[in-house]
């Protein structure tokens, strides 16, 4: 039997909530933000559907339509809403007092008021604009939502009719249908749809988006924004979208042509400024292709009086900035700003102390590529056909000072960082010596008797047999990796120091020492000798062949005693870190992704990577991470043409510290 409800009009002020309304236990349903669109619709169009009410205690209780009732009350309270007062009457339907299906009626009414089918909603919005002549702004006002939200729905409602029909018929998913809105042109949408379904394949949103990318470049894409002005000036076709950021530059070939022209201009500008021989451009920097290219680096030069004055000013400012950066309460923004200032100052100081040789300038060039939304310059590249390796050299040309230039794959470190790396290497070497007491004992005795009995120069300057512990200075001693320190501490704890009691006279101490086992004596001598090793880089086998061979024997892998950490990476330029990740470790994609990150974020990434290599690394990447260290700190397998060139201990203000 069908129950009919008599129509009537009721003043808004006479309406009250009904206790049987199924939404009475979810008050959040009636909160202002949740009925804003309903309030706007009623204000604009009136109450489109009557309320279902029942007479209770002289009032009309709203059995179904509680959200509409809440919206009406807000319209009364809103002084800006004209035409709505407590006396304003609205259409209702009266449920008899003896009706026993009250809760069922409320539930059914709320269920039938479920949101429209998504595609119906999209198409309804589109019809309001195309047929009724409304604008996104008027539609947004009607439904109490934002213009951007309306435009988003409109875009889906304007997808090609065949594609919307496929979604309605469950041939494709709603998400897949939405993916076609990535391109505003219905013709492009239809062509992609037919191409992807011609063999009966199952469509996915991802494959649709990828296919549409070949049909143009969105203006919101970093490349689209970069070339748009030139593209439109040349008459390039633009497929306009309701949402401006989804408009598409349809001529992908013209986009690439303009991009390459702009990259080429940037490369040529850098070539002229630096004096290189050639310039080139590529949209994406291909690490595999560029692996065959060499690279030249500027070598140290003697700064003139004005340059030296500026270098001294930079040094003083850097010291001040380093102190500011140690403030643990520093906000990220301020911290990053300090980093950028440090980078700029260090780069300026290098420019004052370095220059490319004429030979390098004559064969090297600049490649500009697009990376992370900006032009990236790759400086000092040498084409394979221009790479000349003279016999007996490392393949790099001489610098203007006559010293050998850095290896093409090597970073040239500032003097302060180089000196600290030498200290860390000496500490690692000391740990290795303490862990190999027999070999170190032999070296100590050999050094002692050779210096006394042999004629000529000392067999090695690496260790001093003068019973004085070597003083090692380091700018960040409390932040460096502690592996070698822990190993030395463990070696110290294993020593037999019973003979060294302060209460004993030296003669008694000596007697107790002589009574020790030979192995215990070896440990003591090795520990003492390890403490005298001087700061150094990888040895020059020609100038100090003894230590070169000895270090390879006891310290074939410095990473067993030392791990790069944030303290080291903090002192690297951002470009160096990206180069290490992309070229040395084979993490090219990660380098590209991190290029737009702050230096602080890149340092944190590197610190985590070396502390515990990620499970996602390939075997080759994992091996590269496990073996990497700055070239001058390597030992095993360091050939003469790979090792750091030997030189006298540098002056404190020299730019590139050489091997000790």
From TrEMBL:
Location of the region described as Disordered in the Swiss-Prot/TrEMBL record: 386-410, 639-660
Protein name as annotated: Chromosome partitioning protein ParB
Q: Pinpoint the ParB-like N-terminal domain residues.
A: 8-111
Taxon lineage = Bacteria, Pseudomonadati, Pseudomonadota, Alphaproteobacteria, Rhodobacterales
- Give the record's keywords alphabetically: Coiled coil
Give the PANTHER family listed for this entry. Answer: CHROMOSOME 2-PARTITIONING PROTEIN PARB-RELATED (PTHR33375:SF7), CHROMOSOME-PARTITIONING PROTEIN PARB-RELATED (PTHR33375)
Superkingdom in the source lineage = Bacteria
Check the record and name the InterPro entries matching this protein.
Chromosome_partition/occlusion (IPR050336), ParB/Sulfiredoxin_sf (IPR036086), ParB_N (IPR003115)
The residues forming a coiled coil are 304-362
One Pfam family from the record: ParB_N
User: Does the keyword Coiled coil feature in the UniProt annotation?
Assistant: yes
């Amino acid at each position: 039997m069908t129950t009919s409800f008599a129509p009537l009009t009721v003043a808004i002020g006479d309406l009250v909530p009904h206790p049987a309304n199924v939404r009475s236990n979810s008050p959040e349903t009636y909160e202002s933000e949740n009925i804003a669109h309903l309030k706007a619709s009623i204000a604009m169009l009136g109450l489109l559907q009557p309320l279902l009410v029942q007479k209770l205690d002289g009032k009309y209780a709203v059995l179904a339509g509680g959200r509409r009732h809440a919206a009406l009350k807000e319209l009364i309270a809103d002084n800006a809403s004209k035409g709505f007062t407590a006396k304003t009457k609205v259409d209702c339907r009266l449920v008899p007092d003896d009706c026993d299906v009250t809760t069922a009626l409320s539930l059914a009414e709320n269920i039938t008021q479920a949101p429209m089918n998504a595609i119906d909603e999209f198409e309804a919005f589109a019809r309001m604009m195309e047929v009724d002549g409304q604008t996104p702004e008027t539609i947004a006002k009607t439904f109490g939502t934002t213009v951007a939200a309306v435009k988003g729905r409109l875009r889906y409602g304007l997808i090609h009719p065949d594609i919307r029909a496929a979604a309605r018929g469950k041939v494709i998913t709603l998400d897949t249908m939405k993916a076609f809105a990535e391109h505003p042109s219905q013709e492009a949408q239809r062509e992609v749809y037919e191409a992807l379904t011609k063999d009966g394949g199952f469509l996915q949103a991802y494959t649709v988006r990828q296919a549409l990318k070949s049909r143009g470049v969105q203006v919101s894409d970093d490349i689209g924004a970069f070339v748009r002005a030139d593209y439109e000036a040349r008459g390039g076709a633009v497929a306009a979208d309701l949402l401006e950021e989804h408009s598409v530059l349809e001529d992908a070939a013209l986009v690439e042509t303009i991009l390459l022209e702009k990259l080429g201009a940037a490369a040529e500008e850098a070539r002229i400024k630096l004096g290189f021989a050639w310039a080139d451009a590529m949209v994406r920097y291909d690490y595999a292709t560029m692996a065959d290219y060499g690279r030249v680096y500027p070598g140290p030069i003697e700064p003139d009086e004005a340059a030296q004055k500026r270098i001294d000013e930079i040094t003083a400012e850097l010291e001040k900035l380093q102190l500011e950066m140690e403030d643990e309460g520093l906000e990220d923004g301020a911290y990053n700003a300090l980093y950028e200032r440090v980078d700029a100052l260090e780069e300026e100081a290098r420019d004052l102390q370095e220059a490319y040789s004429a030979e390098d300038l004559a064969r090297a060039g600049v490649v500009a590529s697009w990376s992370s939304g900006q032009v990236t310059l790759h400086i000092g590249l040498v084409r394979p056909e221009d790479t000349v390796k003279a016999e007996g050299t490392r393949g790099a040309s001489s610098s203007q000072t006559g010293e050998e230039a850095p290896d093409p794959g090597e970073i040239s470190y500032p003097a302060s960082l180089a000196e600290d790396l030498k200290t860390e290497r000496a500490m690692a070497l000391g740990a290795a010596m303490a862990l190999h007491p027999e070999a170190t004992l032999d070296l100590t005795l050999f050094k002692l008797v050779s210096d006394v009995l042999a004629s000529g120069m000392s067999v090695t300057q690496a260790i001093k047999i003068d019973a004085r512990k070597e003083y090692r200075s380091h700018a960040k001693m409390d932040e460096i990796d502690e592996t070698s320190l822990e190993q030395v501490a463990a070696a110290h704890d294993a020593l037999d120091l019973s003979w060294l009691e302060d209460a004993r006279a030296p003669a008694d101490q000596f007697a107790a020492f002589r009574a020790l086992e030979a192995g215990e004596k070896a440990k003591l001598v090795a520990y003492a000798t390890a403490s005298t090793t001087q700061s150094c880089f990888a040895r020059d086998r020609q100038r100090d062949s003894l230590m070169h061979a000895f270090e390879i024997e006891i310290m074939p892998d410095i990473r067993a005693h030392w791990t790069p950490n944030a303290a080291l990476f903090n002192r690297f330029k951002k470009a160096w870190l990206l180069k290490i990740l992309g070229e040395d470790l084979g993490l090219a994609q990660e380098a590209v992704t991190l290029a737009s990150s702050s230096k602080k974020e890149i340092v944190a990434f590197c610190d985590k990577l070396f502390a515990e290599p990620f499970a996602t690394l390939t075997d080759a990447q994992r091996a590269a991470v496990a073996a990497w260290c700055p070239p001058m700190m390597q030992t095993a397998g360091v050939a003469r043409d790979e090792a750091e060139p030997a030189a006298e201990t540098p002056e404190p203000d020299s730019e590139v510290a050489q091997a000790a």
